[in-house]
Amino acid sequence: MPIFMWQAETKKGESRKGEIDAADEAAVRGQLRRQGFKSITVKKKPKDLFENIAFLQPKVTEKDVVVFARIFATMINAGLPLIQCLDLLGKQEQNKTFSKVINSIREDIEGGSTLTDAISKYPKIFDNLFVNLVAAGESGGILDVILQRLSNYMEKAMKLKGKVKGAMTYPIIVGVIAIVIIGGLLVFVVPMFQKMFEGMGGSLPAPTQFLVDLSEFLQKYYLYMGGGLVALRLGFKRYYATEKGTLVVDALALKAPVFGPLLKKVAVAKFTRTLSTMMQSGVPILEGLGIVSKTSGNKIIENALMKTRQSISEGKTIAEPLLEANIFPAMVVQMIAVGEATGALDTMLAKIADFYDDEVDVAVEGLTAMLEPLLMCVLGPAVGFVLIAMYLPIFQAASAAG
């Protein structure tokens, strides 16, 4: 339905304005009069010129979905009908893209669809985990509880992802700054000194000559080097898109000397938290493992979890195939075995997730503390070499003159 903008006065003479979805202008006026408004002005809201250009529209973030789930759960718990909840959520949503999606979901439900079917049309916003938990909530009549669990889970997942991004961002920023500084010295500063060196005559010291040759190479071939980096990146993306490339790169990532242990801890925290949330929500373990494996973000871990799922379907416990996979720590597997034996696997998984969230915190702090001096040890000598090499001919000339 089209959206109309209105402005009117209350019985006390106070001015009010807003927006209403309605079939036509007459419907808007009738609705406002029934609410006691007078001096009503109505006009159709102009269309956004860029609304059909996808890349110009705001993206729906994880935070948007978390807030949506939390408010949705509160509204349902308060006893509001599903359609009314979605109507209010659509109107108050600031993200235009997400607002349209919520309104579309409401219209689908008004047309007879279930909430699960309606949200499953937007896989980029609501992933398999979200859709399956909502389905469990609808069938069990506990949708508000499920949405609350989802929002809690997503907040913790966002926090975990933020920690990893923070750990990765610092060395990248420092590395880029180092490259820019050294590149600037080679491209702009060294040529100035080179002219001075030519006026002094004589041969240059080996470090200085190397620096001059490197500067000339960069000035002459910088476009080719830039093109080479772009080609290398595209080639890597194409290789990683293949099944073999994904397996090789993901295996190397888990074995990396610095980031490998951190990635394993993140994988354990994510796996246990997700499976715990799904089991607590009534999702069968086989279905839960299938969804968890696809959201792991690492092909090696995904394959291990799918093998675990296959083994469970053949009558084995979850701990046995996890131990055989040799990816998860022995302590985690033992705790899962205890959870299975006591019938409290979901609770045990939640405790493991809490423990590994703290482990990720410690690992990120340790990684940052280690990288700071390591990066300085690389950046300092590199800049020092450039400066010393530039001033060596001056010192040499001064020594010869003395």
Topology:
Blueprint: E1 3-9, E2 15-21, H1 25-34, E3 38-44, H2 62-77, H3 82-92, H4 96-110, H5 115-119, H6 128-140, H7 143-200, H8 206-241, H9 243-255, H10 260-280, H11 285-294, H12 299-313, H13 319-325, H14 330-342, H15 345-401
Helix pairs in contact: 2-3, 2-7, 3-4, 6-7, 7-8, 7-10, 7-15, 8-15, 9-10, 10-11, 10-15, 11-12, 12-13, 13-14, 14-15
In short:
With 402 residues, the chain is mainly alpha-helical. The chain has helices spanning 25-34, 62-77, 82-92, 96-110, 115-119, 128-140, 143-200, 206-241, 243-255, 260-280, 285-294, 299-313, 319-325, 330-342, 345-401; strands at 3-9, 15-21, 38-44.
Topology as H/E string? EEHEHHHHHHHHHHHHHH
Oligomer status = single chain
- Main pleated-sheet profile: 3 strands, antiparallel
Which bin fits the share of residues in helices? over 70%
Distance between the termini: 90 Å
Shape: flat
Strand residue percentage: 5-15%
Number of helices: 15
Based on secondary structure, the structural category is mainly alpha
Overall pLDDT level = 84
Rg value: 30 Å
Query: What's the β-strand tally?
Result: 3
- Looking across the biggest beta sheet, what order are the strands in? 2-1-3
Residue windows where pLDDT falls under 50 for at least 5 positions: none
